[in-house]
Write a structure and sequence with these properties.
Belongs to the bile acid:sodium symporter (BASS) (TC 2.A.28) family. Keywords: Membrane, Transmembrane, Transmembrane helix. This is Sodium/bile acid cotransporter 7. This protein has one domain. Helix content is about 75%, strand content about 0%. It is built from six helices and no strands. Helix 2 runs antiparallel to helix 6 and helix 4 runs antiparallel to helix 6. The longest helix is centred in the C-terminal third of the chain and has 41 residues. The radius of gyration is 23 Å and the shape is extended.
Length: about 190
């Protein structure tokens, strides 16, 4: 295209390492020493992580839509939402097809885990990565819009599909148990 740019890979990887990997390693080391205390006290880590995730989403939404440089009309936003829902549904359908093939060794429970885990993308990792990779870019807010839509879309689609997938899994498990039961010998 006749244009070029330089990407500071070492700077990006060192920032990502310090932002994502180092806290994970420190958490694993600290957990080893306070594991017994954690099991006794049972702090509400689920609620804490939900609150932190909610704050990340909130601040990202605020940063995105408070930016005066964002030029996103309603039609474009609707198209992005439609594309993201379509992509999410396609990924979930493809993972279902691949994990339920005839030669697949996955159990129905494995298939459910594959459907949800393989298509999961989190704001907690995506937003820091975007902020590091596109630091100083004036249209960072615009770039973060698909991720801001994808994360709630996966939660919404997942919650809508849970009853259907659960009934499929239960019926499939029952069918597998019936086909695997040894047949009793017939007395003549």
């Amino acid at each position: 295209l006749g244009s070029s740019s330089s990407v500071p890979f070492t700077s990006i990887f060192s920032q990502l390492f310090m932002t994502v990997v180092v806290p994970l390693i420190i958490g694993q080391i600290v957990r080893r020493y306070i594991k017994d205390w954690l099991e006794r006290k049972k702090p509400p880590f689920g609620a804490i992580s939900s609150c932190v995730l909610l704050m990340i989403i909130y601040t990202t939404f605020c940063d995105t839509f408070a930016n005066p440089n964002i030029d996103l009309d309603k039609f474009s936003l609707i198209i992005v939402v439609f594309i993201i829902f379509s992509v999410q549904m396609s990924f979930m359908f493809l993972t279902f097809l691949f994990s339920t093939r005839n030669n697949s060794t996955f159990t129905p429970a494995d298939t459910v885990a594959i459907i949800f885990c393989s298509t999961h993308k989190s704001l907690t990792l995506g937003i820091p990565m975007l902020k590091i990779v596109f630091a100083g870019y004036e249209h960072l807010s615009l770039i973060s819009v698909p991720l801001l839509i994808y994360h709630p879309a996966q939660i919404l689609l997942g919650s809508l599909l849970v009853p259907t997938i659960k009934s499929w899994m239960i019926s499939r498990q029952k069918a597998l148990k019936l086909t695997r039961q040894p047949k009793a010998p017939v007395k003549v």
